Amino acid sequence: MMGYSNIKTPIIIVNFKTYAEATGEKAVKLAEMAEKASVETGVCIGVSPQFVDIYKIARRVSIPVFSQHIDPIEYGSFTGHVLPESVKEAGAVGTLINHSERRLKLADIDAAIRRAREVGLISVVCTNNTPVSASAAALKPNMIAVEPPELIGTGIPVSKAKPEVVTSTVEAVKRINPEVIVLCGAGITNGDDVSAAIRLGTEGILVASGVVKAKDPYKVMVDFAEAALKA
Amino acid sequence: MMGYSNIKTPIIIVNFKTYAEATGEKAVKLAEMAEKASVETGVCIGVSPQFVDIYKIARRVSIPVFSQHIDPIEYGSFTGHVLPESVKEAGAVGTLINHSERRLKLADIDAAIRRAREVGLISVVCTNNTPVSASAAALKPNMIAVEPPELIGTGIPVSKAKPEVVTSTVEAVKRINPEVIVLCGAGITNGDDVSAAIRLGTEGILVASGVVKAKDPYKVMVDFAEAALKA
Amino acid sequence: MMGYSNIKTPIIIVNFKTYAEATGEKAVKLAEMAEKASVETGVCIGVSPQFVDIYKIARRVSIPVFSQHIDPIEYGSFTGHVLPESVKEAGAVGTLINHSERRLKLADIDAAIRRAREVGLISVVCTNNTPVSASAAALKPNMIAVEPPELIGTGIPVSKAKPEVVTSTVEAVKRINPEVIVLCGAGITNGDDVSAAIRLGTEGILVASGVVKAKDPYKVMVDFAEAALKA
Amino acid sequence: MMGYSNIKTPIIIVNFKTYAEATGEKAVKLAEMAEKASVETGVCIGVSPQFVDIYKIARRVSIPVFSQHIDPIEYGSFTGHVLPESVKEAGAVGTLINHSERRLKLADIDAAIRRAREVGLISVVCTNNTPVSASAAALKPNMIAVEPPELIGTGIPVSKAKPEVVTSTVEAVKRINPEVIVLCGAGITNGDDVSAAIRLGTEGILVASGVVKAKDPYKVMVDFAEAALKA
């Protein structure tokens, strides 16, 4: 896809958030499990660790690493901000933008997508509903991940609780920009949820606690990957 | 100081911001120059690189590394935020809080200082004037760095342009909490500015472009350190 | 238009910002001039005063009054926020959303437009460029006012300095949602700028200093209105 | 107090938030009840309505009216912001600053207090705990209202659930600035809670749902006022 050699669909992106189970050395271990699950199943699995862990993880694994956020800034006086160039040099191939826990202003989403494109980072814009997904599509990101915020972390999968949000998002996004890849997320905990998401028209999922908080994250990732293939 | 074995005053903290000259591999090189200048002069020089560069730098140098910001959060669902525990595990010994380019809400500064204390990070709260410095002192950070924002990056040193801001800040902070170390910053480009800052009652400086954008950052840091000693 | 009896195009909306010349009693006087200019020319002229002045102005004039902002909230515990219902009850018929001086998060623009619709307020979403305008169009506001921020307050009219921004915005917005009315703003100071804006495909303008800071605001508004008619 | 002729302690400030029961015409009625309760008991009762209702209320009642927020701005280009001068001209005598539902950056609290002083508005800074109250005291507001956010709207009164927060706040604030008047709030629903607050060293309370959501707000305000007098 898009000249990023190790990215293909279906794709599973695991958001590490700031979970204890996915911080520092534990984040590296989890990324290694993701790599192993990816190699075993042939499905693309990306990881999205905290900023400080990007470099360490990118050196150890060859699966795609995504930043959890970038700021729409250039080199300069921006203490405490996340520079797209830094994230790229540290080894990330892409970035989440506008996650529900890190919402951005509209003009900043536009600028962040443009900055991601300039430095060669894949942009994955998170959205909360169908109109916002359509709105994001007009900004030409590489991917959109729709996640109804009320389902995040609940274990109630969007693909079952709100299938119409997924299908209407796919339709609205493709109408505005057919090249945008649509993912969905929120409440996904097993392979069935993943297959359902794919059958509804998405090309993958964004998942966090469903993997990170699982007893056996490796097993869950293999399960997800196989379900994505079969769907 | 405070049980942090490699911290002592006078201290010079170099803020790398998101400068091109202080990103990625260049950030590592700059940190190595800072370490060399510190070893040569015996003065404590700390560096404050971007989040993604903390780990790489902390592994290569033994001078104190400061994060440019932390969020007042705990382990959990905070995508795109900066977890104090992560920064600590990556090798930082302290953190800037409330830099003029990353201002925080009052309640969040309080919470960030408390979180820094909990995980064992030195807190350096940046402030813009005397009342705000006094206000910050009541929150019991380890250090306060006063920087009149209108002088940042100008080359007009606060220690000369606004000496009364420095002296009144030292006085106001010490009255509320005598244990807080006061630094100053903004416009510092040579040894004289550093000596002046120390003579006005501070125990060090926070500097960015004066070092990072210098033709020979190593020489400037040595110059600063020697001036700090002689003051 | 849209069941709002006193709204028609071309429309001129005068943003009072927090200018001294447009605060309190002076705001009332300026609104009265706008009404007089509207009556005299037959062109729709709306005013957008500060929150506290909405009630006073709406009682005195019968031209459309727009709030400068609403928060995407409902009745409840939102101290210090701007409730759409309050603005409506005070006499506003519409509201600006996402002005360049009051940018909102994407999800909040979506929610604010929906709340405006629910309470019967015309939504005028301000945007900074063509992609952001297209993005806003997908959220189905009543109007979009594109204003390149670098031209705001300069006296260099967008309709002359960046005509391609205006035409590409009209095209992009209409493609996504043909019902959205497109205005433009920034740097407009005379009738020629207004005619140019209309000829480029807009149905009106959003103006601030060009009217408020003018020696004779009444005369300028008449001039603008006549130019809008002739274009 | 402070040259504001109609302000004296003990004081009860009723925050109208954006409650349906305290919006528009209902806000005026509630303010009239507050005035009647004030006249009947001789206790100072202030009201803090939404921005758009300030003018209407200030014209009808002679009790003190407080804005729920001001922005630390001057006349100029600040669309959608709350100008201290406007609020004052509309009839407010004071303003809340930094309510838990409208938290501000530290530098902005400092600037907002200064702006309030410049235009002659009483500043009431809301805080969430003792260190933050001490911190706010260093900025020299007229009043500080401490409200543990976890108790707001619960009906569990701070004066009973966390008396030590109230006493330690009074002590910390007075140590830094003895002229600052301390109020407390959160969970206050009856006269006993008010007396307890006063006995703990405060000079009044900030209350919202306890009055606004009461079956008979007038009766509750009389009850509060009498309890404040007897304490």
Description:
The structure is a homotetramer of 231-residue chains. The first copy, chain A, has 231 residues and is of the alpha/beta class. Chain A has a single domain, classed as Alpha-Beta Barrel (TIM Barrel). Chain A has helices at residues 25-41, 51-60, 84-89, 106-119, 130-137, 158-161, 163-176, 191-199, 209-212, 217-230; strands at residues 11-15, 44-48, 66-67, 94-97, 122-127, 143-146, 181-185, 204-207. An eight-stranded parallel β-sheet of chain A has the order 2-1-8-7-6-5-4-3. The radius of gyration of chain A is 16 Å and the shape is globular. Chain A starts with 10 loop residues before the first strand and ends with a helix. Chains in contact: A-B, A-C, B-D, C-D.
